[in-house]
Write a structure and sequence with these properties.
It is built from 17 helices and 23 strands. The protein is of the alpha+beta class.
């Protein structure tokens, strides 16, 4: 198969910058596509070429299949990297690229389609012997059927959007009295987010952890795992902290879950990077949650502990090359990632838009920053307000945690409000230090985590001191 010559990145922000970095390393040309608000963004300036999609919001730009394909044809790109989100799991997009002879750096459309349907994927992986949460995924969406099935499963139950992801269209239902309102609420949100209001029911697991496995497949039929990631610290089903290796995770349990993850991948003849997510109960029982058929936001922790470049692997597999190894590589040390957002924790974590007047991070060999913004960039209302991913490596977990706390305290953002202080408090808790957290930890401790510890007067004084110390001195005015 002919090597890829030019990759169009159908995405924006930090993941576009991330893909460009690897493509340049491999000597492959890159094309950035961009909306009107992103015309001066870092990823646009970093690419070899840039193509305007026009529009302001996602639907009129990065989610517009026809516009992105037109950009490919105009620029002569022979492959597309979708990053995560937007069109990364869009079967129609992947098929249309195939029709134009443009390679999609990701799995085949049939794999995306099979795993994109929550009901279908549960049935599919269960046939391969992968444990699934006891639940109901039948065709009937009648309320009477939901009531009967919920009684059979046992409360509490979780209502989930069949076509969902990212926490949308999910409701915990604790009793028969809450059932109808919960189902209808989940359906409304599912229809709004995905245009599909089908709902499935699952047994709600008490004090669950979220443990996922990175898998990789090639065109020769080989599929391996690249170890687990623990993403239990979540807020409203959105991951906040991710780490590998998972704490308090026995080798025996890891082997069982890794085998199940690989089986899930084999059930759809998977090619490229994928992540199989599991819910892990208190007594070691685990169940398939879903499979994400793309690169994950948290993939850097896997790279930091294995020394691999997962984007390079994606590109090589897309070119028809076999996996370079057929066994999981050894892990070295421990890595933790946190996502720094322009948001106001005091106001329900609402996005905080505006200009970033100053942005700086500490510089260390054991620290990696993945970001799509710099000093002077604007956080707009149109897209995800992520500022950066801060990824720390340590020889062991406690070293990584201490370094993470230190580096967060040295990170400076002037402009929009951020979740920096919230993250510091979160990773400084004794429960996190001991690895005793569940996906409910943040919700259960939100009041304590949101307590203010730095007075506004002190913040303003520190800001004034910083800016006065960075001003250029004019010798003629001394």
């Amino acid at each position: 198969m002919k090597p890829i010559q030019k990759i169009l990145i159908a995405n924006r922000g930090e993941i576009a910058v991330r893909v460009i970095r690897t493509a340049k390393k491999m000597g492959i040309k890159t094309v950035a596509v961009y909306s009107d608000p992103d015309s001066q963004s870092l990823f646009v300036l970093s690419a070899d070429e840039a193509y305007p999609l026009g529009g302001t919001d996602a639907r009129s730009s990065y989610l517009n299949v026809d516009k992105v394909i037109e950009a490919c044809l105009t620029t002569g790109a022979d492959a597309v990297h979708p990053g995560y989100g937007f069109l990364s799991e869009n079967t129609v997009f992947a098929k249309k690229l195939e029709e134009h002879g443009i390679r999609f750096i990701g799995p085949k459309p049939h794999s995306i389609e099979a795993m994109g349907d929550k009901i279908g994927s549960r049935i599919l992986v269960a046939k391969s012997g992968v444990p699934v949460v006891p639940g109901y995924e039948g065709e009937s969406q009648e309320m009477a059927v939901f009531k009967k099935e919920a009684e059979k499963i046992g409360y509490p139950v979780m209502a989930k959007a069949s076509a969902g992801g990212g926490g949308k269209g999910m409701r915990r239902i604790n009793s028969p009295e809450e059932l109808e309102a919960g189902i209808l609420s989940a359906k409304r949100e599912a229809m709004s987010a995905f245009g599909d209001d089908r709902i499935l029911l699952e047994k709600y697991i008490v004090n669950p952890r979220h443990v996922e496995f990175q898998i990789f497949g090639d065109t020769k039929g080989n599929i391996i795992h690249l170890h687990e990631r623990d993403c239990s610290l979540q807020r409203r089903h959105q991951k906040v902290v991710e780490e590998t290796p998972a704490p308090n995770f026995s080798p025996e349990l890891k082997l069982k879950m890794a085998n199940a993850a690989v089986m899930a991948g084999k059930s759809v003849q998977y090619e490229g990077a994928g992540t199989v997510e599991f819910i892990l109960g208190e007594t070691g029982e685990f169940y398939f949650l879903e499979m994400n058929t793309r690169l994950q936001v948290e993939h850097p922790v896997t790279e930091m502990t294995t020394g691999l470049d997962l984007v390079e692997w994606q590109i090589r597999v897309c070119q028809g090359e076999p996996l370079p190894i057929l066994q999981p590589p050894p892990q070295n040390g421990h890595a933790i990632e946190v996502r720094i957002y322009a948001e106001d924790p005091k106001e329900g974590f609402l996005p905080s838009i505006g200009k970033i007047h100053h942005l700086s991070f500490p510089t260390r060999e054991d620290l990696r920053i993945d970001s799509g913004v710099v000093t002077g960039s604007e956080i707009t209302m149109f897209y995800d307000p992520m500022i950066a991913k801060l990824i720390v490596w340590g020889e062991d977990r406690q070293t990584a945690i201490q370094r993470l706390i230190e580096y967060l305290s040295e990170t400076i953002v002037f402009g929009p409000k951020t979740n920096l202080q919230f993250l510091q408090k979160l990773v400084s808790t004794e429960d996190f230090s001991q690895g005793k957290v569940s996906t409910h930890f943040i919700a259960d401790n939100e009041v304590e985590l949101l307590k203010e510890t730095t007075k506004d007067e002190l913040k303003f004084a520190l800001a004034g001191l910083f800016f006065s110390s960075t001003q250029t001195i004019d010798p003629w005015k001394v």
